[in-house]
């Protein structure tokens, strides 16, 4: 007997139902994700300021030309692009390694491990502004806690207000502190899925600690490793809020994400609102994330096929 469903008879239902169910999600994606992205791409070819009543003129590739090739500002922009890559490499490598070490330690049956798991994860839930303000107070060069610690050893530092390279490294440290909890939790979740029988069998065969990690833990953690690798890369390439809260606009510290905000909302060297130029910078950042993300995804796919099959 043929059954009748909401969207037609049994035959048509089985063929068209997936399409009907996909329509709300596709429409939502078009409105929330693709729509603003297309609008940003269109804005990048204009001199839009975002101010009410201001004229918007079509300028072609002028914004891209200015960003990449015109004068000293283009050198600063390219330096910000290189700095973005440096920030991503440092954060990805250190956060990944530190998260793995913490997960390995807190996966042992140690007293107080639940407390330390919570302690390391707390920064994740604080929010970027609170994280930044906490560290800004902690790093006060006159009378702050870190200055007092440095004073014990006879050292001084301006921390965030010092050399650009020093301020940049402090932002790297805060970025890692703020997000290493997520990396740790993903590794811990992966470790919980590894059967104790594998470790027990390897110990019976005489495997030591390093051999257990190399032959069992590392291969079995492949999904968690790949997830953390991609999240760390993409997250660090897009980071900019901590630069705003901790350092503000300071030559020698800007990354591309912060440059987009500064140019769009008059926080850069010029107080003008240059949202068309900021849109062009965001498109450059988009292609940077796309290329690196694509290469990283190809690598983790190859790695997953090798270890998991």
Explain this structure.
The chain has 309 residues and is mainly α. Helix content is 73%, strand content 1%. It is built from 13 helices and two strands. The chain has helices at residues 10-43, 62-69, 71-106, 113-126, 128-138, 145-152, 164-192, 196-204, 209-220, 222-238, 241-246, 256-264, 275-307, and strands spanning 4-5, 8-9. It has a two-stranded antiparallel sheet. α3 (71-106) runs parallel beside α7, α7 runs antiparallel to α10 (222-238) and α12 (256-264) runs antiparallel to α13 (275-307). The longest helix has 36 residues, at 71-106.
Low-confidence stretches: none
Structure class: mainly alpha
Q: How can the largest sheet be summarized?
A: 2 strands, antiparallel
Distance between the termini: 43 Å
Shape: globular
Radius of gyration: 25 Å
Question: How much beta, percentage-wise?
Answer: under 5%
Strand order of the largest sheet: 1-2
| Average pLDDT reading | 90
